[in-house]
Amino acid sequence: MVRLIAAIVGLFFSGWLLVSAVLGGTAYISEPPAATAESLFHKHPKEVEFSFEGPLGKYDRAQLQRGFQVYKEVCSACHGLAQVAFRDLQQIGYSEGAVKKIAADWPNQIASIDPATGEAATRKALPTDKIAGPYPNDVAARAANNNALPPDLSLIAKARHEGPAYLYSLLSGYEAQPAELLKQFPEAKTPNGLHYNPYFATLNLAMPQPLTSDGQVTYADGNPKPTVDQMSKDVAAFLTWAAEPKLENRHRTGLGVLIFLLMATGLAFMSYKSIWADKKH
Amino acid sequence: MSFPWAKEYKPQNPVMQWLDSRLPLPRFVFNAVGAGYPVPRNLNYFWNFGVLSGAALGIQIITGIILAMHFAANGAIAFDSVEHIMRDVNSGWLLRYAHANGASMFFIVVYLHIFRGLFYGSYKAPREMVWLLGLVIFLLMMATAFMGYVLPWGQMSFWGAKVITGLFGAIPLVGEPIQTWLLGGFAPDNAALNRFFSLHYLLPFVIAGVIILHIWALHIPGSSNPTGVEVKSEQDTVPFHPYYTAKDGFGLGVFLIVFAILLFFAPNYLGHPDNYIPANPMSTPAHIVPEWYFWPFYAILRAFTVDFLFIPAKLLGVIAMFASILLLFFLPWLDNSPVRSGHYRPLFRQFFWVLCVDVLILGYCGGAPAAEPFVMISQVAAAYYFAHFLIILPIISKIEKPAPLPASITEAVLAKQA
Ligand code: HEM
Questions:
Q1: How far apart, in Å, are the Cα atoms of A81 and each of A134, B186, B279, B281?
Q2: What is the pLDDT of residue B417?
Q3: Ligand 1 mutation target, pool B151, B157, B196, B269, most atoms within 8 A of CB
Q4: Is B34 a pocket residue for ligand 1 (Cβ < 6 Å)?
Q5: Is B277:B155 a contact under the CB 8 Å cutoff?
Q6: What ipTM does this complex have?
Q7: In chain B, what are the domain boundaries?
Q8: Over the Cα atoms of chain B, what is R_g?
Q9: Lower Cβ count inside 10 Å, N or C end of chain A?
Q10: What is the mean pLDDT of chain B?
């Protein structure tokens, strides 16, 4: 009885699935999906190497500081870093005093109340504050950006596939819309207020090219040269640190744990073999 | 119950004697996983995965309880509280990555454990109850993992919760009220997050309880083995301790090595980037996908694209997805070949491997976007999945001519050694 019911249920499910597959398959073959501008012109992130890649990778402190400088001088005009506190910057090599100064000079002040009157006010940032963006709320952010929302960048490096390479490619990858694209898909012309970038999923994004010219940021020791390519790479590295500040600790702990586990497992294997030595199995 | 030659617990120490006559807990442990439990001597490494599943549950409970001390189940701050764990709590990153990847490791070993049972016919008499309780554990695990994934309140948390509770919305008439009742609102929000957290904390302990029943039921007939031939005499078995404690210790070491590589060197490899974006009810992700361990079932859900008479395709998909797991409860009665082990079932064995490939294909399609050609492929693969269990297995068990079985476990072992 069980087997009879099972066979009926099985025939129904399998049969209907095969019918659906044939219907879907013929539709797919007779009318293959048309190519779109995205399917033809979207690019995968560029190949790029970072010091933090691989199982023993470490951050390059000098690069992170350069990246922070780019963030501070360019990106912070639109993007916050709300999961990162100023004092966390000590981890990338700034002294306590330097962090105090960075916080106090930060242009985006912190909302507070006037201690005398209780009225809404703003105050200078302290090292314990999170790195605030320029807008008090999303509505203000949209109003200032053509109705697009500049996302918080704290986790952006982990919130995109191949994050670090994607950030580098996006920032250094703005270009004029290819003539070939316009010829094939005239309706896909970049709308007003958007900007063409083949690394962005939909090819057009609301962020104007933020890094436009070599030397836009002056690096403290003038070395390496602040080309658009170099600045993109540095800020991508900085944002990776912002998203994953415990990476070095994780790699170091992992190495120790693995060495321990390999030895312990080796011992466990030997005791397993010696206990079973007289038992055929 | 056990074999007549099982060693008896005889405490020497007067304290243990005193305890044994009042609360025989050490005796219970001795008989369950000590020298008092005789086990076939010929188990292969596939028999390690039960103990490893238990270890994985232990890791989830310990890391989970500590995470819960720092986590805030409130829609406004849940996401930030997880980031607080990652950045400010001492070793918080380790706990959180261990818990998230621990769930994946848990499913890896449980899937291997289940497929071991499928190949060696462990679900057959007299072990049907062991198999049924195992499936209950599997269902509870899926519920636990689903609700755990909602807790960090990222984009995939939110949209996953919406899609999965939306499945109940496909039920005619009562669907919508049930969905609203489950969520405590019209969309996932604080009410849903809080109840998911409450249940996510509870269910692992329910799982631990069902595991005790699972092992209790196992110890009535004792473990099966790769030949599928029942134990006949004392020389077919060895005491669990020290023989299998030593082997499981080695297995645990290998498990932890794989776990450590994942956790320390690729902790986000199995996760979805979108879950690092805070939940946003106004913005739907391009592709909503669950965690990898749900992909085969997700593929079956989405494989139904055509209405059948008055039954909408979506409802069919929901029924089929639940059926794909529930049918396993009937497996002991669908496959009634008297031979257990796939080693002695030439026809069954070939279809078993087809099933393995089929489930991998379903998994791949479940993770891919819901577009052709993936839909078409998952339709064919899902058709095979149902046909395998509901039609092919019953037929095989009728027509197959099994290979000759060894007379006993010991004979099989000695033949292999010669
Ligand atoms: C059957 C065992 C368990 C499984 C399969 C499981 C699975 C999961 C999963 C998949 C997540 C989401 C991970 C992420 O992406 O962040 C999670 C989160 C969480 N789980 Fe569990 N869990 C289990 C047991 C427990 C237990 C016993 C507790 C403690 C009460 C617990 C507490 C938590 C907490 C607080 C979170 C949110 C923090 C976070 O997202 O990392 N879990 N769980």
A1: 10, 32, 17, 22
A2: 80
A3: B151
A4: no
A5: yes
A6: 0.94
A7: 41-417
A8: 24
A9: N
A10: 95
